[in-house]
Specification:
- The complex is a heterodimer.
- Chain A is an alpha+beta fold.
- Chain A folds into four domains: 2-92, Baseplate protein-like domain - beta roll fold (Phage tail proteins - horseshoe like beta roll fold, Roll), CATH 2.30.300; 96-178, Baseplate protein-like domains (Phage tail protein beta-alpha-beta fold); 188-204 and 267-336, Roll (Phage tail proteins - horseshoe like beta roll fold), CATH 2.30.300.10; 205-264, Phage tail proteins - 2 layer sandwich fold (2-Layer Sandwich), CATH 3.30.1920.
- Chain A is 15% helix and 40% strand.
- Chain A has seven helices and 21 strands.
- Chain A has helices spanning 40-46, 92-95, 112-121, 134-137, 152-161, 253-265, 333-336, and strands at residues 2-5, 8-10, 15-21, 28-34, 53-58, 61-72, 81-88, 106-111, 127-129, 140-145, 166-169, 175-178, 188-191, 197-203, 211-216, 226-231, 240-244, 268-274, 292-298, 303-319, 323-330.
- In chain A, α3 runs antiparallel to α5.
- Chain B is mostly beta strands.
- Chain B contains one helix and eleven strands.
- In chain B, the strands form two sheets. Chain B has a six-stranded mixed beta sheet, with no helix packed on it. Chain B has a five-stranded mixed beta sheet with strand order 7-8-9-11-10.
- Chain B is rod-shaped, with a radius of gyration of 33 Å.
- The chains are: A alpha+beta, B mainly beta.
Amino acid sequence: MILKVKNKKFDFWDEFRVSLVYDAVGSVFSFVGLFDSDFADHKELFKPLSFPNITVEHNGQLLLTGTILTHGFNVSSVPNNTSLQGYSTPGVLEDSQIPVSLYPLQSDKLTLKEIAERLASKFGVSVEVDAEVNSEMNKKFDTTIANEGDTVKGYLNSLASQRNIVLSHTAEGKLLFTRAKTTATPKARFDEDAPGVSISLKTSGQKMSQEITVQRQESIKGTNAGEATLTNPFIPVFRSRVKSQSSGDDNETENAAKTILAAQLKNIKLKIITDRWEWLSDDNSEVMTPNNIITVNSPNNFIYNDTRFFVEAVELTGDRKKETAVLTCVLPEVYSRETPTNIFE
Amino acid sequence: MIRIAKVISSAIEEGLRKIKVQRLGKSDIQTPFQGNPAGIDSQPIPGLKAIHAQTGEKGEPVIIGYINEELLAADGEIRVFSLDSDGVLQAYLMAKNDGILEVNGSADFMVRYSALETAYDQLKDDFDNFVSTYNTHTHPVPGVTAGAASVVASVTTATGNPSTGDITPSKIDNVKTN
């Protein structure tokens, strides 16, 4: 794993961790290594609160472009390691509230793309739009109003989620508006008896409901109060969830219910730990990344049939001796918002 | 969240009133719709303090009221008024807690048209009767015998009566004006 600052390579790390997350604007990284206080390049890299821009690469593949936020020093009579932590460039949008220089908080007749570019550019973040969501990104909102105190990411996410658009980031450090590739061909297959692979499944029934209802208030102009109810096919006992729709019109009430169902499906979580970073497929040189489909078969995890999972996050960790990847996977319907079939029946 | 905002301007859009307000700081300008009590159609003057409230829908706040100044109503009273652009009182209607309704003032009384008409008609009738009496009356001529040839004269017997017209019933004791 190589960390680069201004094209200078640093690869002396004793430990490193990169956590790539699909539905986040900031994937995080941490590196631990020995700081040489006399070495000029180290001074540049380790200077506290300098927010240097970095890239993280592995075998020539760019994994992340971001910023170092945290430096941790620890000195004693023996040499001690220093840690660096940060996140990908758009991560600043999650930490920062909408600055007053970008007020008013109300936008009239602007597209999501225009709003996003206006807000992100202030932080030096570029916006990239997947072709699949291009038309929704260029559709105008009549009026939108951010709450004071909203983070840039929070506000953009509230607008994007109305249109089933996911906020993510590219390896190049751009803010990405996209939609999950849930119908893609599986990138790899994981069986529980494969060497170097450990699979675990956790379902949290307490956070799931059988009946999900969304209601919306009467709008001042035009649309009517709406209500939509969906049934979660995984829950055989009556458990109910009722929520208010806070944006969009009454035609979008069912979509809002689907969003809640999708969020609840995140409580079916599959974790795969492998002893390598590359896909276990024909193309072994490519590092595993989120937004890919895999096939899993693991009877001891109650997955008796080949089942498609969506890779939501990949955590790559390593030291001088070994490399480990942890894949966090969910059902593809979490992102497609379609009603799933119960994989446990 | 409810905030106090300052009115910048107002406009009617598709029959609904939008109030342009300055909310937080210097540049948080928003244009929420105005909510009014049922049947009340009013528009604030610029500079008035408005009460801006969020609703259950993001992006659809409303103005639910205003902080009016120079208020006069006492317990149980209500006053409806209009202002010019400088905030100077132009017209008002005030229902007071002593049963008086003031319309633009309290120096004089309002009148009932019907009662006034009745009194006027009475006065007119009385006057017409008097005129009629006046027109038919004659004067006695001293030395002339009534009924003698070539002399027409009589002794006046009809007299006019005072008018009974009375506008008192037209006075409205509990509605006052200028």
